[in-house]
User: Fold this.
Amino acid sequence: MLMLLSIALFSLIMAGTGCFDIKEIVVEGNTFVDRDRIIDISGLNVGTNIFTVRTGELEKDLEAYPYILQAQMERDLPGKVIIHVKERDLAGYIPFMGSYLLLDTEGRVVSATNDMPVKVIPVFEGIVVNDFKVEEVLHIENPEIFDKMVYISDSVVKHLSDYAPIEVNVQDLEDITLDLDNRFLLKIGNLDNLGYKLEYGDTILKDLFNKGISGELDLNNGEKAFFRPW
Assistant:
């Protein structure tokens, strides 16, 4: 009993000194969701006593956010909190009646929004949608397009994320075009050697972007690229 009372007294003294106040909040595992947005959803604040945070409630609040699949909070005493998140695997947006349907890599509708909360994910034009339900796989005439969306999205995020927002027109899979923030139009033809085309295109665009030049870049023939300024 004496030991328990001593521990309780010590805890009260330390709480009064602010020793266990949160001084640092670290977010790990996020790629698409902004760090500040995750902290805002968690409700954590610098200066809050670290032992007053309800871990279970915090994790449930984060997992209720459509783009976060799993969340875990870790206390690193005396004053550091680490939030570990696992995001959903997102594939892209599809425009529908003035809104945007955000799809995961399985073709499931994660959310329907008026804007694009995750900017680096491309918008796919040329896919006809008649109806949808959130948390269900989107029913379209050509469901095989989902695999191609995932492939394109991965390549775009890897090589062209600096030019977001990005629209990808897949109406004709032999004549795919990418609109980069209304500054560049990339003609990439079919999906053959897509990663190489976009990586090579990025090396050209960097110089043009820094010079404030806009235009059309034809990458159909790989290294024989042709640029036409606007």
Observations:
- Residues 2-87 form a domain with the Ubiquitin-like (UB roll) fold (CATH 3.10.20.310).
- The two ends are 81 Å apart (CA to CA).
- The longest helix spans residues 194-210.
